[in-house]
Design a protein that fits this description.
- 60% of the residues lie in helices and 11% in strands.
- It has 18 helices and eleven strands.
- Strands 1, 2, 3, 4, 5, 6, 7, 8 and 9 form a nine-stranded mixed sheet that branches.
- It has helices spanning 3-7, 10-27, 36-50, 56-76, 163-169, 192-210, 215-224, 232-240, 251-265, 272-289, 294-309, 315-332, 336-339, 341-361, 373-395, 402-429, 431-456, 468-487, and strands at 95-101, 106-108, 111-121, 124-125, 129-134, 145-150, 152-153, 172-177, 180-185, 397-399, 462-464.
- It has three domains: 3-76; 95-185, OB fold (Dihydrolipoamide Acetyltransferase, E2P), CATH 2.40.50; 202-491, no CATH class.
Length: 492
Amino acid sequence: MRVKTIINSPSKTLASALAVFCFGILLGPFIPPGWWEVLLIISIGLIVSSSVVRHKTFRFTLVMLGIFLFALFRYTQVVLPSNILTVATAPSSQIRVSGTVAGEVEQRLGGQRIVLEDVALADESRSGRLLVWAQLYPEISHGDEVVFTCKVQTPEPFEGFAYDRFLESQGILAVCYRPEYIDVHPRESFSLVGSILSFKQISINRLGLIVPEPHASFLSGLIFGGSSSLSSEMKNDFSSTGTSHILAASGFNVSLFSLVFLGWILSTRLGRRKGLILSTILIVVYVIIAGATPAVVRAGLMGGVVVLSYGVNRKSSLLNVMLATAALMLLINPLILMADVGFQLSFVATAAVLALTKPLEKYLQFIPKTFELRTSFAASLSAIILTLPILLWHFGQLSLIAPLANLLVLPLVVYAMAITIVALVVSVAFVPLGTLVAFPAWALSFVMLWLISVLGSIPFATLELAHARLLAITVAAILFFIWFHFRYARRT
């Protein structure tokens, strides 16, 4: 396609600008530190000068180049200069640590996962966040100030997974295991985030009243994310079957839920406009109830993209929506593009759901459309196919049973989520009635956990690959070739 055609199309011009920004973020790591002022000045100069240029092609080129340099500038803003003291530059011995709890404290079977900001080592302020793995007591909450002694360490990759880069994308530069002499100073002032997280914990506790374990923990993982209350054996089964992602507050879970819910509600008399509004309200309510953590907000955005896709008629507009969502998230945190697996999986899975669900439904006529089962199955298959290269790249494993496990389990996830949410709302008025409403979700949980347990017990279900990243590139290339063939080659 010629540049002139793109210039004369506002939709494609916007798509080009957003894509250039994302590409600039991708190349950000190759920019030497200390160049941010130069990049910003040149970027502003190019964009401003484009306003006085009459030639469309030249003006378009100046704007794209300016956006590209601005993306490089934005990436330099999240890279700390080498001369700044961070939590990673700590002595190798025990040291006094103080900080404020940021975000949610994750309660796990073996202890608490705590992220600290405003960290000081030996009363000296340091940049960056600190991840602390502490014992279960004393209880610590969002906003509390804590003081303890600990040996601060830099995180390291393990089993081929770049754990250090993943933590860095969240601003975490160091870790601390088994802190001693913990002194907690509870938050005294009102905190909106703290209140939302408290409401989430109340919802989780109420779920434990209406559904027995381990189903309460499993259903909680589907809705709120997390698998801390599940046994290690069960976690291994999820890992072996490649279904661990459903226990995260993932964009795929919310996207699939939004897709199936919209398909159902638009078939009722409520109408398209009211259905879209109701779906949007449900996503906002979900984000608040689930704690509005970064992962949950990201999942909500992906669900919002699905809802918005029903409100636009042109594919080019949908492309702009996807690119705008990615660009916005990268503008907030450029590091997530290459280091945050959750972002990559959520974005690609949502794109797969939107792009491939309807085409795949044509080949799944043998699956009934009742309760949107065919749509749910097609969406699950779409996500499995397109996220395979990402899983191979980051984890270096190939689960031979994962495709079957996901195809059997994923279509049931959305119904378990929907019924559980309704049961939670009903239980506020009357707990026994909430238990009655939750019974179908309990049954679905039993089926899913049984399937995962049986499939996870199959020997040699997971292979450790010596050249997993090469295979990931190969699979991605094959998928691109198939897309190109169906998109362009068949037209000639």
